[in-house]
C-alpha cells in the first residue's frame, strides 16, 4: 500500500463513492473554520492543480524546491510518459515526486500533455537522471502477471533478502535434476539453508538485556488475596499467560502500588514522573511495569486514556539505556512503536517527548509528511521510532531502517492496525526482527487476527485485561439519546449547539466524510467556529485541528471515526454521535473521548430507526454503566429481535438492517 494511502485505507469502506467535500460554500467560510474550506480545496488537488494548464505554477506553489541550487539546469533530459500515469509520479499532494527528487538528487518538471503522453523534464547529473528515469519507468509500467522466477532471480533475491554474509554461497549447490530431467531448485534444502543463514545472522547480533526488575520488599510481601483484591478494585484487572502457562515460566509478578516500587533504582525516571504531577500509577501501569521491566512480552487489552502509553514507554527508556552495546555503537534505533494512525503516532511521540531520560531521542514517521525530513532524522541517530505501518514498511524496504536492530517492539492498538488492513506491512516490516526481542502489544479488543499476530511475534506473553471493552469509560459518561428521523438530525444538533455553555467542548462524530464536511460548512455559515478531522484532510490540517481544540481556539470538532481512538483532548465535555457508529466498540471508544482523567462527561447519541440493530448491544452497555434505558430503545431492540425471528422463520436474510446505503429506508414505518 502506498504509505500516503494508509489513512484512506480505514475510511475507504465508508467513503467508497462519496463526493468531495462541498466547495460551493467556501466563500462563506472565512474567517471562521478556515481549515474546513482550504482543506476541501486541497483534497481535490488533482482537479485544482494538475489539470491546470499552468503546471509550472503548481510546481512552484506546491513543491518547495529546496534543492534548486544543486542542479545544473542545462543538464536535462525530456522523457514522455502516458498522461494517465502522471498521477503515480506526482503522488498524493506531491509526495511521490518529492521522494523521487530526494532519493535521486534530481529535479522533475511535469510538462504539458500532448495527446495521450506527457513530457517530463529531468534535471541533474547524467547518473542521477538515469536513476530517476528507471524509477519513473517502474512506477508507470503496466502491471503484468508475475512470471515464474528463474533460478537466478530466485537465488539472488533470497541472497539479498537475508543479507547473506556467506562469501562461499553458490546457488548451484541447491540445484537438482527433476523427474523430467530438468535442472530445478531444491527448495526444501535451499529454504533450510536460508533459515540457517538467518539464524547465524541473529546469533551474531550484539546480545541484549531485558530484565531490569528488582521487586520491592513491600510488593514481595503482598499475599495472593491482597493481590487479587487489588486487581478487583482496579478496573477488575485480569492477568494471565495468553497461551500455555508452562511450568518453567516465572509466576506473574505482583502489581506495584507506587511509582517508587517500580522505579526506585531509576531516580531520573522518578523525577520525570514527579514532574508530570501524577499521584499514582494507573491500573495498567501498576501491573504492566513489573512485567515489562522483567523483560517479558505483554499484551495490554486497554484503550487510550488508561495510561497505556506510559506503561510501555518507561520500561522502553530503561531498556534503551540498559543495553550492553553503547548507544552510539548500535546499528540503529532500539525501540519501535507502531501505531495505526498519524494522530496516534504523533500523540505517542508527544508523550515520549515529555520524558527526558539520558538524551534518548525519538522520531515520528508517518505517511503524508515530508519523507526526506524523516529519513534525515533517522540517519542522524535516534533511539525510538514511532511510526505508522505504511511509512515504516516503506523505509524498511528502502533500507533506511532495519527491523533486525530493534530489541523492544510495541504494536499499539493492534486491532485497529489490522482493521485498517496493515497486517501485510507489519509482517513484512518485522520479517527480520530478532527472535529474542521484547514485544508489547496493546489492543482494545481480542479478535482472531490479533491473537495470531501475538502467536507470531510474542514469546509466552502475559495478558493484562483492563476491563472488557474498557467499560470503565462508560461509567464516567452520562449517556443520552434522542430518537429522530434522519432528516431531523441537523436541526437537533444545532438546537444542542445553540444551548452550549461557553466552556463546553464538544466532538461531533459523523458516519461519513461528506457528512462531516456538510456539518462543518453549516457551522461556518452560521458563524460558529469549528475544526474538522477526517480522512480527506491534509496531515498538517489534522494536526492544526487538534491543536486548536487543545488550546481552546475552537470548542467544536467535527470528526469521523478516524478520530474516535487515540485522540486525547483534555476537558472535552460532550460527545455527540450524529450518526451511530458501525460497531458497538466504536460507540464505547467515541464516548470515552470525554469523562477522562477523573472528570465526567456527556454523550448525546441521535438514533434513527435504521440503527435498530444496535439497540440490544447498547442496552447492555447502559446496564453495565447502571444508567437509564430509554423505553424507545427497549422497543427498538424488541422489534429487531422479532424481525430476526420472523425473518429466520421465513428463510429470509434481513441482515443487520438498514445501516448501508441500500438498506436505508427498507421497510420504514412498519418495523419502527
Ligand atoms: P494514554 O492512555 O497513554 O493515552 O494516556 C492518557 C493520559 O493519561 C495522558 O495524557 C497521560 O499523560 C496521562 N497519564 C498517564 N499516566 C498517568 C497517571 N499515572 N496518572 C495520571 N495521568 C496519567
Automatic annotation (TrEMBL):
<dbReference type="InterPro" id="IPR014014">
    <property type="entry name" value="RNA_helicase_DEAD_Q_motif"/>
</dbReference>
<keyword id="KW-0067">ATP-binding</keyword>
<dbReference type="GO" id="GO:0003723">
    <property type="term" value="F:RNA binding"/>
</dbReference>
<dbReference type="InterPro" id="IPR014001">
    <property type="entry name" value="Helicase_ATP-bd"/>
</dbReference>
<dbReference type="GO" id="GO:0031047">
    <property type="term" value="P:regulatory ncRNA-mediated gene silencing"/>
</dbReference>
<feature type="domain" description="DEAD-box RNA helicase Q">
    <location>
        <begin position="258"/>
        <end position="286"/>
    </location>
</feature>
<feature type="short sequence motif" description="Q motif">
    <location>
        <begin position="258"/>
        <end position="286"/>
    </location>
</feature>
<keyword id="KW-0347">Helicase</keyword>
<dbReference type="InterPro" id="IPR011545">
    <property type="entry name" value="DEAD/DEAH_box_helicase_dom"/>
</dbReference>
<dbReference type="Pfam" id="PF00270">
    <property type="entry name" value="DEAD"/>
</dbReference>
<feature type="compositionally biased region" description="Polar residues">
    <location>
        <begin position="35"/>
        <end position="78"/>
    </location>
</feature>
<feature type="domain" description="Helicase ATP-binding">
    <location>
        <begin position="289"/>
        <end position="464"/>
    </location>
</feature>
<comment type="similarity">
    <text>Belongs to the DEAD box helicase family.</text>
</comment>
<feature type="region of interest" description="Disordered">
    <location>
        <begin position="1"/>
        <end position="78"/>
    </location>
</feature>
<dbReference type="InterPro" id="IPR004087">
    <property type="entry name" value="KH_dom"/>
</dbReference>
<dbReference type="InterPro" id="IPR004088">
    <property type="entry name" value="KH_dom_type_1"/>
</dbReference>
<dbReference type="InterPro" id="IPR036612">
    <property type="entry name" value="KH_dom_type_1_sf"/>
</dbReference>
<feature type="region of interest" description="Disordered">
    <location>
        <begin position="647"/>
        <end position="672"/>
    </location>
</feature>
<dbReference type="GO" id="GO:0003724">
    <property type="term" value="F:RNA helicase activity"/>
</dbReference>
<feature type="compositionally biased region" description="Low complexity">
    <location>
        <begin position="153"/>
        <end position="164"/>
    </location>
</feature>
<dbReference type="Pfam" id="PF00271">
    <property type="entry name" value="Helicase_C"/>
</dbReference>
<dbReference type="InterPro" id="IPR027417">
    <property type="entry name" value="P-loop_NTPase"/>
</dbReference>
<feature type="domain" description="Helicase C-terminal">
    <location>
        <begin position="476"/>
        <end position="637"/>
    </location>
</feature>
<dbReference type="InterPro" id="IPR000629">
    <property type="entry name" value="RNA-helicase_DEAD-box_CS"/>
</dbReference>
<dbReference type="Pfam" id="PF00013">
    <property type="entry name" value="KH_1"/>
</dbReference>
<feature type="region of interest" description="Disordered">
    <location>
        <begin position="149"/>
        <end position="171"/>
    </location>
</feature>
<dbReference type="InterPro" id="IPR001650">
    <property type="entry name" value="Helicase_C-like"/>
</dbReference>
<keyword id="KW-0547">Nucleotide-binding</keyword>
<feature type="compositionally biased region" description="Basic residues">
    <location>
        <begin position="658"/>
        <end position="672"/>
    </location>
</feature>
<protein>
    <recommendedName>
        <fullName>RNA helicase</fullName>
        <ecNumber>3.6.4.13</ecNumber>
    </recommendedName>
</protein>
<dbReference type="GO" id="GO:0016787">
    <property type="term" value="F:hydrolase activity"/>
</dbReference>
<keyword id="KW-0694">RNA-binding</keyword>
<keyword id="KW-0378">Hydrolase</keyword>
<dbReference type="GO" id="GO:0005524">
    <property type="term" value="F:ATP binding"/>
</dbReference>
Amino acid at each position: 500500500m502506498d504509505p500516503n494511502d494508509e489513512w484512506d485505507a480505514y475510511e475507504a469502506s465508508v467513503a467508497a463513492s462519496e463526493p468531495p467535500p462541498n466547495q460551493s460554500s467556501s466563500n462563506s467560510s472565512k474567517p471562521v473554520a478556515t481549515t474546513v474550506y482550504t482543506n476541501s480545496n486541497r483534497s481535490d488537488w488533482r482537479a485544482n492543480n494538475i489539470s491546470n494548464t499552468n503546471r509550472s505554477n503548481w510546481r512552484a506553489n506546491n513543491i518547495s524546491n529546496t534543492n534548486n541550487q544543486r542542479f545544473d539546469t542545462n543538464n536535462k533530459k525530456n522523457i514522455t510518459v502516458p498522461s494517465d500515469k502522471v498521477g503515480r509520479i506526482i503522488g498524493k499532494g506531491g509526495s511521490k515526486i518529492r521522494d523521487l527528487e530526494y532519493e535521486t538528487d534530481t529535479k522533475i518538471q511535469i510538462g504539458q500533455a500532448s495527446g495521450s503522453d506527457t513530457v517530463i523534464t529531468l534535471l541533474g547529473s547524467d547518473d542521477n537522471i538515469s536513476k530517476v528515469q528507471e524509477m519513473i519507468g517502474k512506477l508507470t509500467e503496466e502491471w503484468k502477471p508475475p512470471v515464474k522466477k528463474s533460478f537466478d532471480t530466485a537465488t539472488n533475491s533470497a541472497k539479498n533478502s537475508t543479507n547473506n554474509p556467506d562469501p562461499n554461497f553458490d546457488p548451484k549447490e541447491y540445484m537438482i535434476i527433476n523427474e523430467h530431467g530438468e535442472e530445478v531448485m531444491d527448495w526444501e534444502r535451499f529454504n533450510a539453508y536460508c533459515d540457517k543463514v538467518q539464524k547465524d545472522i541473529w546469533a551474531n547480533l550484539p546480545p541484549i538485556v531485558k530484565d531490569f526488575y528488582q521487586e520491592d520488599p513491600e510488593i514481595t510481601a503482598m499475599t495472593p488475596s491482597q493481590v487479587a483484591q487489588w486487581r478487583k478494585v482496579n478496573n477488575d484487572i485480569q492477568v494471565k499467560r495468553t497461551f500455555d502457562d508452562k511450568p518453567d515460566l516465572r509466576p506473574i509478578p505482583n502489581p506495584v502500588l507506587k511509582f517508587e516500587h517500580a522505579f526506585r533504582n531509576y531516580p531520573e525516571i522518578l523525577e520525570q514522573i514527579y514532574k508530570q504531577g501524577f499521584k499514582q500509577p494507573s491500573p495498567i501501569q501498576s501491573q504492566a511495569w513489573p512485567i515489562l521491566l522483567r523483560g517479558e512480552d505483554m499484551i495490554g487489552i486497554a484503550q487510550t486514556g488508561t495510561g497505556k502509553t506510559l506503561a510501555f514507554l518507561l520500561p522502553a527508556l530503561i531498556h534503551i539505556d540498559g543495553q550492553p552495546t553503547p548507544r552510539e555503537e548500535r546499528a540503529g534505533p532500539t525501540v519501535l512503536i507502531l501505531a495505526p494512525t498519524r494522530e496516534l503516532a504523533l500523540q505517542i511521540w508527544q508523550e515520549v517527548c515529555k520524558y527526558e531520560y539520558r538524551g534518548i531521542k525519538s522520531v515520528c514517521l508517518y505517511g503524508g509528511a515530508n519523507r526526506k525530513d524523516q529519513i534525515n532524522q533517522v540517519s542522524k541517530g535516534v533511539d525510538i521510532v514511532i511510526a505508522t505501518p505504511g511509512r515504516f514498511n516503506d523505509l524498511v524496504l528502502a533500507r533506511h531502517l532495519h527491523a533486525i536492530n530493534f530489541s523492544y517492539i510495541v504494536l499499539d492498538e493492534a486491532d485497529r492496525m489490522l482493521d485498517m488492513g496493515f497486517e501485510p506491512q507489519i509482517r513484512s516490516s518485522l520479517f527480520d526482527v530478532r527472535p529474542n526481542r521484547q514485544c508489547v502489544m496493546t489492543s482494545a479488543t481480542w479478535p482472531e487476527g490479533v491473537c495470531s499476530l501475538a502467536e507470531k511475534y510474542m514469546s509466552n506473553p502475559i495478558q493484562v485485561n483492563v476491563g472488557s471493552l474498557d467499560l470503565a469509560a462508560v461509567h464516567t459518561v452520562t449517556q443520552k439519546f434522542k430518537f429522530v428521523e434522519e432528516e431531523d438530525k441537523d436541526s437537533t444538533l444545532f438546537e444542542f449547539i445553540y444551548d452550549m455553555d461557553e466552556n463546553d467542548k464538544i466532538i461531533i462524530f459523523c458516519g461519513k466524510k461528506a457528512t462531516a464536511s456538510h456539518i462543518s460548512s453549516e457551522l461556518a455559515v452560521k458563524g460558529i467556529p469549528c475544526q474538522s478531522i477526517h480522512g480527506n484532510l491534509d496531515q498538517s490540517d489534522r494536526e492544526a485541528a487538534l491543536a486548536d481544540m487543545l488550546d481552546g481556539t475552537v470548542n467544536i470538532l467535527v470528526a469521523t471515526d478516524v478520530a474516535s481512538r487515540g485522540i486525547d483532548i483534555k476537558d472535552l465535555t460532550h460527545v455527540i454521535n450524529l450518526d451511530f457508529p458501525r460497531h458497538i466498540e466504536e460507540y464505547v471508544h467515541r464516548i470515552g473521548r470525554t469523562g477522562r482523567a477523573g472528570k465526567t462527561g456527556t454523550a448525546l447519541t441521535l438514533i434513527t430507526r435504521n440503527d435498530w440493530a444496535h439497540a440490544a448491544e447498547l442496552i447492555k452497555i447502559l446496564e453495565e454503566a447502571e444508567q437509564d434505558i430509554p423505553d424507545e430503545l427497549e422497543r427498538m431492540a424488541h422489534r429487531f429481535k422479532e424481525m430476526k425471528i420472523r425473518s429466520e422463520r421465513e428463510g429470509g436474510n434481513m441482515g443487520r438492517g438498514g445501516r448501508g446505503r441500500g438498506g436505508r429506508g427498507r421497510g420504514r414505518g412498519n418495523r419502527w
